[in-house]
Design goal:
The chain is an alpha/beta fold. The chain contains eleven helices and 14 strands. The chain folds into two domains: 159 residues, Rossmann fold; 161 residues, Dihydrodipicolinate Reductase, domain 2, CATH 3.30.360.10.
């Protein structure tokens, strides 16, 4: 059986990544693609690397007939997404890649995103889309909220450790390096080649990054008490990828054993041999996560390094992984491609 899907916001990076992944999926057909400013254009003209594919023409959302669509991916900006999703058919399955349904508390959403949520009733229905930890709920869901790419990286490294109680919850520092595609495709002065290349900078310093809302929500729920981590992201001159270096108080060998035990059966998460750490090169263009653990020269301290591709496992690959579950397909279908190297 072939399932027909629509991608709203197909002219952005995550939309194009969805097309790339789904193009070789044996059970899913792309039936509709939407864009705003690029409506009326062919995907081959917007993304020449997709010119070999026979794809629908980009259209405005209101031009799509959703009657035959089994599942809709929404790769739209936050705020826009909640407005669009509230008008979609109530029986259609939806995977949202924006931030609009990640936070369960409307007040938390207002705090981190600066505006009231306009679809609170739907917000309560959404299932958080970190597949490995919400798998059963996702399979039964109508609406799944994809995680933030930074939030996903940190959670893969930390959730099993918090649940097992093997780290000091008040001594968690996340230092993250992020590729430029994480900022989206819109033109921004600081992302021009001349201003980005040959340099790196910290941003959202001092606890202002919006993905902290997800860390607060998820880590506190696991621990059963408030957990606040220190988190600083850094923009680095690479197109795609995230590398998180996480500093912890705990026994490094126990931390490694906990992660290896938690992820032993997971198809997309590789826990490296103790003492080894990975590179963004190792996961680029794939749906894999690599996690390494090493001890520190300071006794009782450990360092965890997690890498993933922000556009794939951090966003569109995660979205397809969730869609597979929602459609009753094999979770790994269309996602077992090897990373790109070099």
């Amino acid at each position: 059986m072939t399932h027909k899907i629509a991608i709203l916001g197909a002219s952005g990076y995550t939309g194009a990544e969805l097309v790339r992944l789904i193009s070789s999926h044996p059970s899913i057909e792309i039936a509709a693609l939407s864009a705003d400013r690029k409506a009326g254009m062919e995907m081959a003209d917007v993304f020449p690397h997709l010119r070999h594919l026979a794809l629908p023409t980009l259209v405005k959302i209101d031009a799509i007939n959703f009657d035959d669509i089994d599942l809709c991916f929404c790769a739209l900006p936050h705020k826009t997404s909640q407005e669009v999703i509230s008008k979609l058919p109530k029986t259609m399955k939806i995977v949202d890649l924006s931030a609009d349904f990640r936070l369960r508390d409307p007040e938390a959403y207002k705090t981190w995103y600066g505006n009231d949520h306009s679809a609170v009733d739907i917000q309560q229905e959404a299932v958080y889309g970190l597949t490995e930890f919400y798998r059963d709920d996702i399979a039964k869901a109508r609406l799944v909220a994809g995680t933030g790419c930074n939030a996903a990286t940190g959670q893969f490294a930390l959730r099993p450790l918090i649940e097992a109680g093997v780290v000091d919850l008040d001594e968690i520092i996340i230092d993250m390096k992020v590729g430029v595609s994480g900022a989206g495709r819109s033109l921004k002065e600081n992302l021009l080649h001349a201003e980005l290349s040959e340099g790196s900078n910290a941003y959202a310093v001092g606890g202002t990054h919006r993905h902290l809302g997800e860390f607060d929500q998820e880590f506190s729920a696991i621990a059963g008490r408030p957990v606040k981590v220190q988190f600083t992201p850094h923009l680095v001159p690479m197109n795609r990828g995230i590398l998180a270096t996480i500093y912890l108080k705990g026994d490094a060998a126990e931390i490694h054993a906990t992660l290896a035990g938690a992820y032993g059966g997971e198809p997309f998460i590789e826990v490296l041999p103790f003492g080894q750490t990975g590179s963004t090169h190792d996961t680029r263009g794939s749906n894999f996560v690599h996690i390494g653990v090493t001890d520190d020269r300071i006794e009782g301290r450990a360092i965890v390094v997690a890498t993933l591709d922000n556009l794939t496992k951090g966003s569109s690959g995660q979205a397809l992984q969730n869609a597979n579950l929602m459609l009753g397909l094999e979770e790994t279908e269309g996602l077992m491609m090897a990373p790109l190297f070099p």
